[in-house]
Write a structure and sequence with these properties.
about 400 residues; alpha+beta; six-stranded mixed beta sheet; four-stranded antiparallel beta sheet; 13 strands; binds alpha-D-galactopyranose
Length: about 400
Amino acid sequence: MTDSPLPPAASAALAAHRHIYGGDARVAWAPGRINIIGEHTDYNEGWVLPAAVKRHVAVAGTVIAGSVTDCFSEHHAMRASFTNPSSPEHALPAYLPLWSRYIWAIFAELAALGVRVPTSRLAISGDLPVGGGMSSSAALLTATATFLTRTAGHPIEPLALAQLCQRAERLASGAQVGIMDQAIALLGQEGLALLLDCRDLSHEWIHGQPTGWQWLLFDTQVRHSTAAGEYNLRRAQCEAAVVKLQAALPDQRITALRDVSLADLDAPGAGLSVVERARARHVITENGRVHRMVAAMRADDTHEIGHLLVASHASLRDDFAVSIEELDVAVEVATAQTGVAGARMMGAGFGGSVLILARADDVNAISAAITSAYEQRTGRPGKAHVEHIGDGARFR
Ligand code: GLA
């Protein structure tokens, strides 16, 4: 395995490190992800079905003396440095740009575990769209954590490391994210999708792509800076619904929307607001769709897979209210193409990408047709990319 070629992001990070800092660096890289289905279910202790892709964020680094770590981001063409924090309670230096806060937060979380985190010079490169809904932030976090734990000689088991990276993401960005992105970035396996139970982190693997079909991602190129606030608001609405349902159904063990059925929403005295009811309905029906998707994927039933993708999109748009016009248009133009089984918005929402299942033989023509129809409808350029399912984080 050691002589397999480095992914482009890793070669780029090594070249950037040589150029900026010199010296012989080691490199860690971690993938972005697609999520086949199970959106906004992870923090409701439900199920998700992501797969790692062959686009990455890579961190090349050398260890230096002292306690000031320096980092360079090729994407931002920018350097940042900080004194290594000794715990997450340390105030995050206000001058740090967001990308370097993720690195700072990994240092802080590792230090809290008692890891002697090596002072480093780190160069970061990647070929994942930043803010494209493919979890470039989780890729940066998990690549950094992989680099530092391996360099420190303190390996941490992948699911525990995913939880550490999740805490770091919350610390750095303020978004109260779930576990999906960090888990798949570390666990990913070539060709396979991960069915993850976000309550106890038990999981199984299924074949990630129906025979003769191909996952295609269409980036709307829209990014909304309010996304973290909207994300936290959705989470708070789900939690508010849980509190009301617990009071209305005291005999039922409800700790998350995972434990609730559609019928429970009508419990006398629950008194859910229209919004809370809609948010809960999305989570409940989406959890159901994850299980139906696993069955459909196992049966290679592309008709049902397509139907579930489209139903998931409608639920995210109408009940969870995280879609935007450009995502809706992308789904509409994608599903109008012959050779497309279905499509849906993917990730947190408020911009980013649409996931499309397309016939493998026609994928290039389908990409071109969607790109041109999207531009005609929105006046914006979008970007289609064929995604191949790859492995999780690696270190070399
Ligand atoms: C973001 C978060 C995940 C998950 C998705 C929505 O990617 O990081 O934890 O909640 O949004 O499914």
